[in-house]
C-alpha cells in the first residue's frame, strides 16, 4: 500500500505550522540523484524559528533541515541507487522540506549511519557538521587543512566563538581532528564540556575583557583564523573586535548574517554563508555533540512544540529532537 505523507505546513510567516497531508514524491520527482526517506527523527535548529517568523518565502512552505531515518525508495539504475538502497539507515540535511513523514533528499546531502546508532543521536549531526565543515575548510572561508586520522599538530590555533553551541561542538572536533589547537568561548558552566570535545583553552564570553584577552592569547602564536559558530550579531561584533586587535592578519568566517556592516572594523574582511554551497561531510569518528534532548515523541505533531521551546530558551550543550511515535 502506498504510504500517506504528511507535513508541517507554514501557511504564512509568524504563525504556528499546521500538520496536513502532502504529496508523496514519485520516481519522476526523485530522478537520478534523490532518495525517499521515511523520517524517524527530526532535529530543531535556531534557524527554524527564525524562518518561521520572517516573511522570506512564497507560501505555503515546509520548513525543517535535519532528519534521520530509513531509505524508503530509490529509482532503480539511478546514480543514487549506486550508493543507497532501500532499508539503509541515514542522516541528512535538507534545504527546508524536512518537517515531513517522507522526504525526498539529494544523495549528496545524506550519509549512512551505523546500525547501533539511534536516530535521535544521528539526527543532531547533519546541518551542524556540514556548516562547521564549510566554514572551517571551504575554499571561500577559512580554508583550513582537512581532518584526517592521526593528523599531526600544526602549531597553529583556531578560535571558535560559541563552542558549546550545536555548530561549535562539531567545529571543535573537526578542527582538532585537523591538527589545530582550538581556543573557544562559552559560559563557565560549559568549560568542561568543550574541553572534552578537544578545546585546549576556554574563555568566558561574558567577561568584560574577553576580546582583549583573546587577542593577546591568539598573538602568542600563529592563528589560522576565527569562526563564529554562535552568538548572532553580538558574536560577530566581538569576533571582529578580536581580529582588529590582533597584531597578525586574521581571516574570520561567520555562520550568522551580519545585520549592520558598520559594526565591522576597518581592515577586517568577513565571509558569511550563502545558500546552496555546502555538502554533507564524510562520516567521521567523533562524539555525538551536542547530545540530543528528545522533547516529543509525537512525530510531526511535536514539531511546533519543539520550535517554540527553541525560540523561548537559549539552548546550548544540547539539540532539541522530535521522534516518530
From TrEMBL:
<dbReference type="GO" id="GO:0016651">
    <property type="term" value="F:oxidoreductase activity, acting on NAD(P)H"/>
</dbReference>
<dbReference type="InterPro" id="IPR020843">
    <property type="entry name" value="ER"/>
</dbReference>
<dbReference type="InterPro" id="IPR047122">
    <property type="entry name" value="Trans-enoyl_RdTase-like"/>
</dbReference>
<keyword id="KW-0560">Oxidoreductase</keyword>
<dbReference type="InterPro" id="IPR036291">
    <property type="entry name" value="NAD(P)-bd_dom_sf"/>
</dbReference>
<dbReference type="InterPro" id="IPR013154">
    <property type="entry name" value="ADH-like_N"/>
</dbReference>
<comment type="similarity">
    <text>Belongs to the zinc-containing alcohol dehydrogenase family.</text>
</comment>
<protein>
    <recommendedName>
        <fullName>Enoyl reductase (ER) domain-containing protein</fullName>
    </recommendedName>
</protein>
<feature type="domain" description="Enoyl reductase (ER)">
    <location>
        <begin position="14"/>
        <end position="322"/>
    </location>
</feature>
<dbReference type="InterPro" id="IPR013149">
    <property type="entry name" value="ADH-like_C"/>
</dbReference>
<dbReference type="Pfam" id="PF00107">
    <property type="entry name" value="ADH_zinc_N"/>
</dbReference>
<dbReference type="InterPro" id="IPR011032">
    <property type="entry name" value="GroES-like_sf"/>
</dbReference>
<dbReference type="Pfam" id="PF08240">
    <property type="entry name" value="ADH_N"/>
</dbReference>
Amino acid at each position: 500500500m502506498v504510504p500517506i505523507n504528511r507535513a508541517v505546513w507554514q501557511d504564512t510567516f509568524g504563525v504556528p505550522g499546521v500538520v496536513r497531508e502532502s504529496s508523496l514524491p514519485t520516481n519522476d520527482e526523485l530522478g537520478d540523484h534523490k532518495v525517499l526517506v521515511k523520517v524517524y527523527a527530526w532535529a530543531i535548529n535556531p534557524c527554524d524559528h527564525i524562518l518561521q517568523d520572517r516573511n522570506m518565502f512564497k507560501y505555503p512552505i515546509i520548513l525543517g533541515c535535519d532528519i534521520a531515518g530509513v531509505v524508503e525508495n530509490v529509482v532503480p539504475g539511478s546514480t543514487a541507487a549506486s550508493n543507497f538502497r532501500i532499508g539503509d539507515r541515514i542522516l541528512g540535511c535538507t534545504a527546508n522540506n524536512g518537517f515531513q513523514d517522507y522526504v525526498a533528499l539529494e544523495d549528496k546531502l545524506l550519509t549512512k549511519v551505523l546500525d547501533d546508532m539511534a536516530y535521535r543521536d544521528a539526527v543532531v549531526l547533519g546541518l551542524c557538521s556540514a556548516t562547521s565543515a564549510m566554514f572551517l575548510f571551504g575554499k571561500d572561508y577559512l580554508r583550513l587543512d582537512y581532518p584526517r586520522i592521526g593528523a599531526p599538530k600544526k602549531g597553529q590555533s583556531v578560535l571558535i566563538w560559541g563552542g558549546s553551541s550545536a555548530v561549535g561542538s562539531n567545529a571543535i572536533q573537526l578542527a582538532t581532528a585537523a591538527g589545530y589547537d582550538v581556543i573557544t568561548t562559552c559560559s563557565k558552566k560549559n568549560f568542561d564540556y568543550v574541553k572534552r570535545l578537544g578545546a585546549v583553552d576556554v574563555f568566558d564570553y561574558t567577561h568584560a575583557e574577553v576580546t582583549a584577552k583573546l587577542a593577546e592569547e591568539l598573538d602568542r602564536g600563529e592563528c589560522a583564523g576565527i569562526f563564529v559558530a554562535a552568538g548572532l550579531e553580538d558574536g560577530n561584533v566581538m569576533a571582529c573586535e578580536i581580529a582588529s586587535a590582533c597584531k597578525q592578519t586574521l581571516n574570520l568566517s561567520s555562520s550568522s548574517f551580519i545585520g549592520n556592516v558598520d559594526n565591522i572594523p576597518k581592515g577586517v574582511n568577513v565571509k558569511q554563508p550563502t545558500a546552496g554551497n555546502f555538502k554533507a561531510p564524510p562520516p567521521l569518528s567523533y562524539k555525538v555533540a551536542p547530545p540530543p534532548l528528545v522533547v516529543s515523541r509525537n512525530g510531526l505533531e511535536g514539531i511546533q512544540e519543539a520550535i517554540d521551546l527553541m525560540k523561548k530558551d537559549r539552548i546550548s550543550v544540547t539539540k532539541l529532537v522530535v521522534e516518530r511515535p
